[in-house]
Structures are given as C-alpha cells and as structure tokens.
Amino acid sequence: VPERKLIHSALRGDRASQQALFNQIREGLFRVAYRMIGNREDAEEVTLDSFAAALNSLDSFDGRSSFATWCYRIVTNRSLDLIRKRQRRSHYHAEVDEVTLATLRDRSSSSERTLLSHEVQRHLERGLASLSPETRAAIILRDIEGLSYREVSDVLECAQGTVASRLARGRTELARYLEAQGIDATYFSSH
Amino acid sequence: MYDRPHITPSELASYLDDELGPARHRAVAEHVSLCDTCHQALASMMRGQSAVRALAPVSAEEVRWLGPPSESRTLRPLWSRRPVAAWLAIAAMTTTIAIAFSAVTPSGSRPDTRQTRSAALDLGLLLTDLDHPTGTPRFSSAYRIEPASFDAAVTEADLLSREILDRIPSDYVLEKARLISGPLINPAALLDYEGPEGRVLVICQTRGSRTAFSGFEPRLLEILGTECTSVYCSRFKAIRLTVDGDVFTAVGPRNGFSVERLAQVLLGAE
C-alpha cells in the first residue's frame, strides 16, 4: 500500500494503517532513540511516544519530506528533550546508566553479538555518548541511518553546512576518544 | 610544503560523504593528496565514521504499538472516569452476575475463605524501595477499570502505568535516589483481575525499573499456583535481563527482594 494511502487511512483512525506505518519506521526510530539516549527502555518509550505524537499531528504533515523523515524529526527532538532533562538529573541517571551498561553487556552475548568485542563496543557506545547531543544526532542520522545531508538538515532543522560541521566534529572527536582508549584505528576497517 | 589554505573540516566531511559538486570534489581530492594536515584530518574523520558504522545493531522487535492514548485513559479518580449511568449499569450487571453465580454454586460446598476479588480490575501503584534497608514494597489499590479482554487490559495497564509515573513528583524520585544512591524506585501499574480465563496479573513497570521484575513470570505463576492463570509483564520490563536464581541481580541480592517477596505483596500478605 502506498505511504500516502496509509497516511490517509491512519488519519481517519484506521488502526491497521497506523500499525502498518509504525511497522515501516519502527526500527529506524528505535535505533535513533537508542543511540541518542543510550538505554533501551527509555528508547522504547520515546519511540512509542514519538509515533503517537506523529499520529496526533498527522493532519499537519505536509508531505514535503517523507513520513519517515518527519518522524525522525520528532524522535530526535524527543530524545534531545530527554537528554536535557537527564542532564538536570545527572546524579540519578548516572547510576541508572551504569546499570544499563551492565545489562547491555550481559545480553550482548545473544542475538546482538557482533564481531567486535564487548569491550570495544562499550568504548564505542561511550564515545558516541561523549559527543554533544546535537552532534550525536547528526552522526546517528547520517552514519547509522544513512540520511542525506538534506534530510539530516530537515530533521535537525539547521543548515546543511551546520550538518557538515557537526559531522566533522563528531567523527574527529570519536576517533580521538577511541585513540585515547588505546583502540587501534585500523580495528574498525579490519572488522 | 603545500601552502594553500586548508580545507575546512565541514568541507572535508562533505567530501567524505560525496556531498560536494564534481569540480569542488576534484579540488578537495587534489588538495588532500598534497596537504598532510588535511590528509590527517580526513583520515581521522574516516576512522570516526567507520567506528560509528561498526556499532552493534539494535533491534526494536519488542517495541509494540498498542494504539494511541485516548482521553478515556487519562488518569482520573475512578468515579469520574464514567458517567453515573454507566456506573449504575456496571453495578447492575455485576450484581446480576453475582446472583447467577451463587445460584449455580453447589449447595454444601465448602465456603471459599480466600479473599474474593471483584470481576473488575484493580489497578494499583506498586512502589518498591528495593535498595532501602528498611524499604518495604507496598501496593495500594487506587483505580479500577473494566477491560473487555486481556489485550485491552494490557493496553490499559501500559498507558496507565505511564500516567502513574507522570503523577509521581520527580522531586520525590530524585530525593529517594539521593538518599539511597541508586535506581530504587520501581513504580508499576498492577492489574489483577478475574477474567473468563481465570485470574490474570498484568504488571507494567515504568522507565528505569524494568530490571526488578524481568523474567519472573513463570516463577511467579508457580508460586501463585492455580489462583492465577497467566502473568503478563508489559513492554516496560525486559525479559532478557539476568536472573540469579529467584532473585533479580539488578536489585535483589543486596536487599533480598525476591519473587517470593513480590508474590507476598501481590497476594496481600503484607
């Protein structure tokens, strides 16, 4: 079913269409939220809340960007909101994040096992988390989700030049962070 | 030494992503091949980009869309959730069912001394101070809803648990966290009802608290025995987290909070 038709039906409250739209973008929204926020339960919640918000304001969707890009904008903004809120509660969440990291390490032994060692994955996740939220968002949208500069600028509501400078800063900072952890720069090209 | 002005970092990023026009792309390529500083800057960016792409994939398979929240799910006192006429209808229906049920109960059978539960749902707020040395899990029944089915119960519980969390003053959570230095407040919505399929428990935990109850359904079911036909934990908990025997490692060993303890709370043995 074409996206436009699904949106039209979803707008009329058709549950099957809403579900179909959700299934189309669920993985992408969750990946963005998860990589932005760094823990699964918050990411799940932000994913669902963002989709609910998208549905609620579906009548204002003008179709200039794709529905997915539009939802990316919502999920990115909500993730940024949550991060800011967290920063205000840094004491509390520092504890929670430690627990989350431990559980991530535990479960990475099953379905999400990759070629990279757990230790390197942990450094990678920490390195990504060390970037400023805005820079991180640009990196996630471009380097993980594969959005074009135009789409990223659309999602982040900034100029394409800003996207480029955030990407430059983020990639360089991440490379430096990993080097500081003693991770060989050639590691990633060989895995 | 190559003495042309260096390429800006943002242009290097655009070059790396093939976002430059053909002429500019060629010019940058030529510059980078001659300028060691820009060459190194580009190499660093490439390493950062490769690293991000090497992140382990994550799956959203557990993220389920249960439908948008409706106004009827707004957390309000029980009596204000429905018009009076609706409550009267429910009361009449419940009474009719109770009379019909008593009429078919075999005479002379042993009276059931267990605490009887309404056909309606009890939705409560379970607040557990798991890490507190003297913390006692407490359950307070506060809201009642009447879902048409198990799926509806799950949906209601999911939504209400979130709304309950919103009702907990963040200062309270923060203050508790400071006192005991850890993720210790575990708000959960608990639905406990007698449906056509038997007693059903629906436990919906809210954010940051999923580790407390994860993976405990089979064990809890075993403890509750025939009283309970199914236990469901909502998306707010994770079933994949570590369980150390009956005690959940994330919150258990330090304070002895176990599935048995939770069962006590649920059964009202507190």
Notes on the structure:
The complex is a heterodimer of chains A (191) and B (270). In chain A, 75% of the residues lie in helices and 0% in strands. Chain A has helices at residues 3-11, 15-37, 40-56, 67-88, 90-107, 118-130, 133-144, 149-156, 160-180. In chain A, helix 2 (15-37) crosses helix 7 (133-144) and helix 3 (40-56) packs across helix 4. Chain A is elongated. The relative contact order of chain A is 0.10. Chain B is α+β, with helices and mostly antiparallel strands. Chain B contains 8 helices and 7 strands, in the order ααααββααββαβββα. In chain B, strands 2-1-3-4-5 form a 5-stranded mixed beta sheet, with helices on both faces. In chain B, strand 3 and strand 4 form a beta hairpin. In chain B, helix 2 (22-34) packs across helix 3.
Topology at a glance:
The complex is a heterodimer of chains A (191) and B (270).
Chain A lengths: L2 H9 L3 H23 L2 H17 L10 H22 L1 H18 L10 H13 L2 H12 L4 H8 L3 H21 L11
Chain B lengths: L8 H8 L5 H13 L1 H18 L30 H21 L17 E6 L10 E6 L6 H18 L2 H11 L7 E8 L2 E8 L11 H8 L5 E4 L9 E2 L2 E2 L10 H8 L4
Parallel strand pairs in B: 4-5
Antiparallel strand pairs in B: 1-2, 1-3, 3-4, 6-7
Defining key terms:
heterodimer, A: 191 residues, mainly alpha, 9 helices, 75% helix, B: 270 residues, alpha+beta, five-stranded mixed sheet, two-stranded antiparallel sheet, 8 helices, elongated
Tell me the structural class of chain B. alpha+beta
In helices, the fraction of residues of chain B equals 25-40%
Count of helical regions of chain B: 8
Please report the number of helical segments of chain A: 9
Shape of chain A: elongated
Percent of residues in beta strands of chain B: 5-15%
Shape of chain B: elongated
Extract low-pLDDT stretches of chain A: 89-115
Helicity range of the residues of chain A? over 70%
Ends of chain B: how far apart? 80 Å
Unreliable stretches of chain B: 69-145, 167-189, 205-215, 232-259
Strand proportion of chain A, as a percent range, falls in under 5%
